[in-house]
Amino acid sequence: MADYGRDRGAAAPDRERVVLADVRNPAFEGYGLRDLSGHRKKLSEVKWGPTQAHLTMALDDGSVRIAALNKLDAPIWRLSSHASHTTCLAYSKNYKFLASGGSDALISLWDMEELICLRTYSRPDQSVRTLSFSHDAAWLAYCSEDGAGTIDVVSTQTGDLASTLSLKSYCECVAWCPAAPVLAFAGDEAKEGYGAVSIWAPPKPAS
């Protein structure tokens, strides 16, 4: 559960601490910058945002908390996202949207300018494992921890389900290309002894 800013990385190695790393240092020197332990809840994931001076944290009480780096125990915003613990986070490229997934099998979509929940998606049957925004924030892809797994692609504007990808194996992560509507996802399906990485693009509209 790690995320990278312009020249820094943030990770929660044991769900209790946030560790900052100076990625300009090739050796990292024991993570490089600081070990922050100001918060009091178990962490599932951390993300930089909505600025490089803030961290967004997914916590086991179902909330999402956004705090300044030097005041992790005094969050600026607390978003009540899930009935049980928050499992994963994703920001859109422009930080306009924040998505959170939870063990309650829900995905919450937040407008970060208004700090309101725009809608929730409830197609997964189990805990949400991973999610990602397209480069233009038009699409959100997510996958739950159910069996072989499926990936849903939904519109952030209408909430409509655009596509469902049926997987042959458990999905570990999804990620959109930063410059085009192309989705990559990785799972446990073995190819030549390694886990498979697959690429998918939505069909072009009929002319």
UniProtKB/TrEMBL annotation:
SUPFAM superfamilies the record matches: WD40 repeat-like (SSF50978)
Keyword Repeat (UniProt): yes
UniProt key word Membrane: no
Keywords associated with the record: Repeat, WD repeat
InterPro entries tied to this protein: Tex1/THOC3, WD40/YVTN_repeat-like_dom_sf, WD40_repeat_CS, WD40_repeat_dom_sf, WD40_rpt
Renumbered ranges of WD repeats: 79-120
Origin superkingdom: Eukaryota
Gene Ontology cellular-component terms listed: THO complex part of transcription export complex
One GO BP annotation of this record: mRNA export from nucleus
Family according to the record: Belongs to the THOC3 family.
Protein name, per record: THO complex subunit 3
Organism of origin: Tetrabaena socialis
Source taxonomy: Eukaryota, Viridiplantae, Chlorophyta, core chlorophytes, Chlorophyceae
